[in-house]
């Protein structure tokens, strides 16, 4: 980087046209990812609706299994795959195609290893739930759903890394189209397996597996075609130099990024499951748990936009750092955080306006809808912190500092949010609203800490130099020092 680098001419005061260009670049990536996330959300809702048509026992068993698989499986795979973001985005920025492709292969290998202990947990869901005091009939249905979902673990070892791999190269529309095609067939597939074939709960599980498999196959076909085009008709080899040594040698350093990324995501996901458990100890637990379920579904829906924004700004920051343009990376980070605050304000507004009617979309039970209405504004305020927090975590991943985000989530959710939630809900008798005030306190602490780390503690020129070291390590990446240095805050 020299004084002639155009990145240094405009880093102090970016012009409105530069901000507009960055907004165009960011949302050109984020809109298709948001649409894809919404389609994935719709797929999950369709599965729950078909479980509900089968009966209350099947719905309860399926819901229990979905919660268990999310906690023990999907959150772990998504979290580990996010460790690929800094390597792929920075490699793409520096046009290091070998490192880009090889990192994808390494992450697939890591996820495959992770599915082994996860599979053992899923196979033993029945004994685990019975040991925890769950109803035997509900547990039996949950175990059935979980067993038929096992192939989805292998599918996700391909699907999750492919999503990060493509997003890091600013390729988002093909992912949206692949998801659209797969989800379009999800409803008729459920109907055929559940209603026509009479497979029941197993049919719902198999339909989800097949839908994810369709997504993975289409994305993999696109990646093969893209690599063939980039390589002049030659597809990059899966096993480097024919023996796999190149893949395996770099697994350790990549794990140094994947594990903190996984912890950062899982610590947040798991907290919502803790809230569900805590709501079961409140007076009238059936109503409280039902209301919690609606609130978590609402949060999941609102999360689709900041999650897309976080993934895209991670790619943007990584691309610019890899290209040796630190101040363009800083501009991307600031523009994304500004967008996150706007999204948070929008969520505050609509949760206040529709607080009375929102719960009625899910249930006619007045006791549940009243409880939902009482905490909807609190949920909106939570999103005012969650949107910049989620986006900030994406920025930290783009700068290869996922461990910082993991520490922030641990401190905010478990050392701030949990004591406040338990104290207000049970100690001060705030009841159901006390749990969500706990979430609000966690999100405030998390957002402030993230913003300080991103805006106050980031040396963008230093991060660009670290990105150069990461890419200069070459495709072998056998030196853990270069990756560890790039991952330290």
Describe what this molecule looks like in 3D:
Keywords: Membrane, Transmembrane, Transmembrane helix. Pfam families: MatE (PF01554). It is found in: Membrane. GO terms for molecular function: antiporter activity; xenobiotic transmembrane transporter activity. This protein is mainly α. The chain has one domain. The protein contains 19 helices and no strands. The longest helix has 39 residues, at 16-54.
Topology at a glance:
Elements: H1 16-54, H2 56-82, H3 84-93, H4 97-123, H5 125-131, H6 136-148, H7 151-167, H8 173-184, H9 186-196, H10 201-230, H11 245-249, H12 251-279, H13 285-322, H14 326-353, H15 366-398, H16 402-427, H17 432-456, H18 460-472, H19 480-487
Helix pairs in contact: 1-2, 1-8, 1-9, 1-10, 1-13, 1-14, 2-4, 2-6, 2-7, 2-12, 3-4, 3-7, 3-13, 4-7, 5-6, 6-10, 7-10, 8-10, 9-10, 12-13, 12-16, 12-19, 13-14, 13-15, 13-18, 14-15, 14-18, 15-17, 16-17, 18-19
Fill in the keyword field for this structure.
mainly alpha, globular, disordered N terminus, disordered C terminus
State the total count of DSSP E strands. 0
Q: Characterize the biggest β-sheet.
A: none
**Overall pLDDT confidence:** 86
Task: Give the SSE order as H and E letters.
Answer: HHHHHHHHHHHHHHHHHHH
Give the low-confidence spans: 1-5, 232-243, 474-489
Put simply, the count of helices is 19
Percent of residues in helices: over 70%
The total domain count is 1
Report the end-to-end length measured between terminal Cα atoms.
22 Å
Q: Tell me the radius of gyration.
A: 23 Å
Beta-strand portion reads under 5%
Find the structural class using helix and strand composition. Answer: mainly alpha
Overall morphology:
globular
């Amino acid at each position: 980087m020299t004084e002639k680098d155009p990145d240094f001419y405009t880093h102090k005061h970016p012009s409105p046209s530069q901000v507009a260009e960055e907004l165009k670049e960011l949302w050109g990536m984020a809109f298709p990812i948001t649409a894809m996330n919404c389609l994935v959300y719709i797929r999950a809702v369709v599965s729950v609706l078909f479980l509900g048509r089968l009966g209350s026992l099947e719905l309860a068993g399926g819901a229990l299994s979905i919660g268990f698989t999310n906690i023990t499986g999907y959150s772990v795979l998504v979290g580990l795959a996010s460790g690929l973001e800094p390597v792929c985005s920075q490699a793409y920025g520096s046009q290091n195609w070998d490192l880009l492709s090889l990192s994808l292969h390494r992450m697939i290998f890591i996820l495959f290893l992770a599915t082994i202990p996860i599979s053992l947990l899923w196979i033993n869901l029945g004994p685990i739930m019975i040991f925890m005091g769950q109803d035997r009939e509900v547990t039996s249905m949950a175990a059935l759903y979980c067993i038929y979902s096992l192939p989805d673990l292998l599918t996700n070892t391909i699907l999750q890394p492919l999503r990060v791999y493509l997003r890091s190269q600013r390729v988002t529309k093909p992912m949206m189209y692949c998801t659209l095609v797969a989800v379009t067939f999800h409803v008729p597939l459920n109907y055929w397996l559940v209603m026509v074939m009479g497979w029941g709960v197993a049919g719902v599980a198999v339909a989800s597996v097949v839908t994810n498999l369709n997504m993975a196959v289409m994305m993999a076909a696109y990646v093969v075609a893209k690599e063939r085009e980039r390589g002049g008709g030659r597809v990059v080899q899966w096993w480097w130099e024919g023996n796999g040594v190149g893949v395996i040698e770099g697994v350790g350093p990549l794990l140094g990024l994947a594990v903190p990324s996984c912890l950062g995501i899982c610590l947040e996901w798991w907290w919502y499951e803790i809230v569900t458990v805590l709501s079961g100890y409140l007076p009238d637990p059936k109503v409280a748990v039902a209301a919690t379920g609606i609130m978590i579904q609402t949060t999941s829906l609102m999360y689709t936009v900041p999650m897309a924004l976080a993934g895209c700004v991670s790619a943007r920051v990584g691309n610019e750092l890899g290209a040796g343009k630190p101040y363009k990376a800083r501009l991307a980070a600031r523009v994304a955080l500004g967008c996150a605050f706007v999204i948070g304000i929008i969520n505050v507004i609509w949760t206040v306006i529709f607080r009375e009617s929102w719960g009625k979309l899910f249930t006619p039970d007045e006791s549940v809808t009243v409880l939902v209405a009482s905490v909807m504004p609190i949920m909106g305020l939570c999103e005012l912190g969650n949107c910049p927090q989620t986006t900030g975590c994406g920025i930290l991943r783009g700068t290869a500092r996922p461990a910082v985000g993991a520490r922030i989530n641990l401190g905010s959710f478990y050392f701030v949010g949990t004591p406040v939630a338990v104290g207000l809900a049970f100690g001060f008798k705030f009841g159901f609203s006390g749990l969500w005030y706990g979430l609000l306190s966690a999100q405030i602490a998390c957002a402030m800490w993230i913003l300080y780390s991103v805006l106050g503690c980031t040396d963008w020129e230093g991060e660009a130099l670290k990105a150069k070291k990461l890419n200069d390590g070459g495709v072998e990446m056998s030196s853990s020092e270069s990756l560890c240095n790039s991952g330290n805050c």
